[in-house]
Amino acid sequence: MPAGSRAACPRIAAMQAPVVFSHRRFLFILWALMALGFCATSLIGYHVSKQAIRDAIVGQDLPLTSSNIYSEIQKDLIRPVLIAMTMAHDTFVRDWVLQGERDVDEMTRYLREVRQRHGAFSSFFVSDRSQRYYTGEGILKRVSSFEPRDAWYYRVSGMSDDYEINVDPDLANRDLLTIFINYRVFDYDGNYLGATGIGLTVDAVRRLLDQYQERFSRKIYFVNTRGETVEFGNQKGQGADLRTRPGIGALVPDILAAKQGSWQYQAEGDNHILHVNYLPELKWYLFVEQNESVALAGIRQTLYTNLAISLAVTLVVVLLIHFAFRRYQGRIEEMASTDKLTGLLNRHAFTILIDKLISELRREPRPVALLMADVDHFKSINDRHGHLAGDTVLEHVATTLENGLRASDLAVRWGGEEFLLVLKGCEPEEARRIAENLRAAVAGNPVSLPGKSIAVTISVGIASFGPDEPPSQAIDRADAALYKAKHGGRNRVELAG
């Protein structure tokens, strides 16, 4: 395994890197700056938003809420329209009418199944030939042009559109207010046969309004063309007359005439902002109200929430930075103490570790040997095979040397192709034996490159080291022994005198 890809040498863990700056002071300053910045931003944003929020309510929020509700209502009505269209084009319905409407049970079963399958409130078919009003329970009645409650059918039979959406009491369900999709039915030659479709209880619309009121914290309600609020479930679909309400009452005629727009009025000491849309499908007005004081109270609450979140975010960021400092400090120390190419300690790390070693030797004297190893003919290897090959040779030699040492020994890339090995508790003769083993291991393990193999040898000089001499003197003696090994023929070990 190449040395450059090894994990950090475990001996580095004992090192203490010099403190460049106090990261705790830095974290405190960072926390203070972030907290002040967040608080200042929140306060400035609050004061700016007080006016902006009012403009947004009038110009954007209420119109958008109204449009969203309108779109949701239209979306909820698309599926029933598709169901009614399918019924109007169903060959069974047309064939059943053309064959004389003989089996009433067939139509009854058909309408009952449509209602149950699609979850409709009611389903119906009115035949233009027999004037019969069919439901899932059978024949309800015969329609008559003289009956006011049957006016819807004659309106449908005479209209040019394929269908209409209308709100009427449901005769088949105790006159409950229901949204009907009335779809015209024609035979295969385009002759009018009647009207079919389904009914949906307006409770679905009420649930939709409840959801929007909870989501947007605004008052949302429908008003009919007479200025009365629509109370869902009421048989007449009528509620309180808005004209009698303080503040808004004087605006009702203008609102009903304009059909769409924004208004403001005062009531109970608060300013209310109102947006109105007319829904032609239902013939109702959609009212969306916002109490301005409530809206500003929400902004104040948002301010407090933002301040709390800002402080929490600041604390989390500072803690993450603190943990990152602690996590990567060891990595930084490793990068500062390790030779990038070989993964061995560098000279800076050796300077720190040798001082610790001298302190240990003074407390507990024991023999120490320094080995200075150098790759033989390294310049020739670079010249013949290139610098990439030379780097591979250095990695290979570093791996071989480190693998041949004990866990307590140190391996340092001294510079270029030179390596310094520190053997603790090692007598000169023992050091010679280890050096010979390292030399033999390097010589007996050529470096493999694509398409070729490079034979590599090293020369080693050995010197004993004691606590009473500077490390530089022992290194000089080991270097002199290395010089002697080089001149003695290389690929050899020499012991300094």
Counting helices, strands and paired strands, the structural category is alpha+beta
Q: How would you characterize the largest beta sheet?
A: 6 strands, antiparallel
Order of helices and strands: HHHEEEHEEEHEHEEEHHEHHEEHEEEHE
- The separation of the N and C termini measures 37 Å
Reading side by side through the largest sheet, how are the strands ordered? Answer: 3-2-1-6-5-4
Helix content: 40-55%
Rg over CA atoms, rounded to whole Å, is 46 Å
**β content, as a range?**
15-25%
What is the count of helical runs? 12
Poorly predicted sequence stretches spanning 5 or more consecutive residues: 1-21, 233-238
The tally of strands reads 17
Average pLDDT level = 84
Anisotropy-based shape: elongated
Summarize the structure.
With 497 residues, the chain is α+β, with helices and mostly antiparallel strands.
What would you note in describing this structure?
With 497 residues, the protein is an alpha+beta fold. The protein has a six-stranded antiparallel β-sheet, with helices on both faces. The longest helix has 66 residues. The chain is elongated and about 135 Å long. 30% of the residues are buried. The N terminus is likely disordered.
